[in-house]
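hey so i finally got around to running the thing on that chain from the lab meeting. sorry it took forever, my laptop kept dying and i had to restart like 3 times. anyway pasting the input first so we r on the same page abt which one it is
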Amino acid sequence: MDAMDGTTEQLSMTAAELSFLLASGGQLGEAPRLLGLTDADRADAVLSAGLGSLLLRHLAAPVDGQKLELAPAVAAVAAGLHRPRAFVQVGLTAEDHADGALLFEAEMTRFLVAARAYRCYDITPIGADVDVREPLVAIADRFLHRHRPAVATFNASTAQAVARGDAPSRATLASATDGSWRFVGSDATDATATVVESFDEAATLMRDELARMLPVFQPSP
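ok and heres what got predicted. didnt touch it at all, straight out
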C-alpha cells in the first residue's frame, strides 16, 4: 500500500504476530475472520512464533518477569483489533488483478491493513486529524485508474451491527473503459446506478455515502 498524506509510519507484521496480539487480549470478535486468520493460527506453535518474532524485531520486550511491553505502534494495533468501533473492507477487482484493504476504526486509533505475500500485512496508521474517508477513497482512486475497467466495493459495519448479526452496508465505485464512472450507493441497485464523467464527482458521492453508512465517519466541524 502506498504511503498516504497525514499518516504515520507504515508497519509490516506477520500473520503469526497478529495472531499473538489477538490471543493476548479478550474476546476475539470479527478481527480474525476479517484478516483471514483461522483456528490453525491460534495453535501454540504459531503463537510462540509470533511472540518470538515480535521480540526479535524489538516490537515487544519482556518486563517484570512474565509481563510483556508492546512498542507503542504495536499496542495501538492491538487495541484497534480488539476494540474496533467500525470497520470497512475495500475489495478491488479487475479483469486480471485483485487487491483490497481493511480499515479498523477504534476510539483512540485507526489504521488500514492490506494483506501481502507470505502471510504478511502492511499496516498504515491514520492520523487523528485526517478525515478517515480520504485514505479509503485514495485506495480506490489508485486501483481504478490503474486497472480499467475495475470495481471498488466498500463493505462497512459497526461492531454493534455485527454483534446483532446485521449485514454490512455496501457501496461500489467503478471505472469504465469509456472513461465514465459508476457509483452505486448502499440503498441503490445496478439499475439505479449514478454515472458521472469524472472521478472527482464519483469520489464525492462515495465520501457522502460513507458518512451515511457509518456516522462515526462524519468529519468534525
